[in-house]
Amino acid sequence: PDRISLEISENTAKGTVIRTITARDPDQGLYGTLTYSIIGGLGKDYFGIATSGEFGDLSIAKSLDRETISTFNLVVRAQDQAPTPKFDDLSVDVTVTDANDNAPVFTDNDISVSVPSQLKVQSLIATLA
User: What span, in angstroms and rounded, lies between the C-alpha atoms of 101 and 83?
Assistant: First the structure.
């Protein structure tokens, strides 16, 4: 199948349309009326697709976290409504980019430092790594 690649920030809100996908079917009536669906791929539950005329609006269905899953590979299908439907599949690779959504955390919570009483103000007393 054909393939497209997208990049989205992990702080993109649920419900945001991240890409409008277009397929064309020159047939008339139900033979040319398309519906879109996500039929497979890693993380398909994180995304949704809504059919709007001849377009499919790919959107975020669940909150994303790059530190948990950084790439998704979806298979989107455009299918006509004929009694024996015809379809085409599109591979969609989604890369989740990082956002500053995590605060630093000290790994050692029990730190003790001895400071001589005659030490000058603004002297270095410890280096934390």
Answer: 49
Three-class SS state of 90? strand
Query: d(Cα 44, Cα 29) in Å, to the nearest integer?
Result: 30
Confidence at 1, pLDDT banded by 50, 70, 90: low
Residue 50 CA to residue 77 CA, distance in Å, equals 12
| 30-74 pLDDT tens trace | 999 999 999 999 889 999 999 988 899 999 999 999 999 999 999
In terms of C-beta density within 10 A (0-12 exposed, 13-18 middle, 19 or more buried), how is residue 108 classed?
A: exposed
Q: Are 46 and 62 in contact (CB under 8 A)?
A: yes
Please state, in angstroms and rounded to a whole number, the distance separating the CA atoms of residues 69 and 63.
11
Q: Tokens 């809504």: give the residue.
A: 50
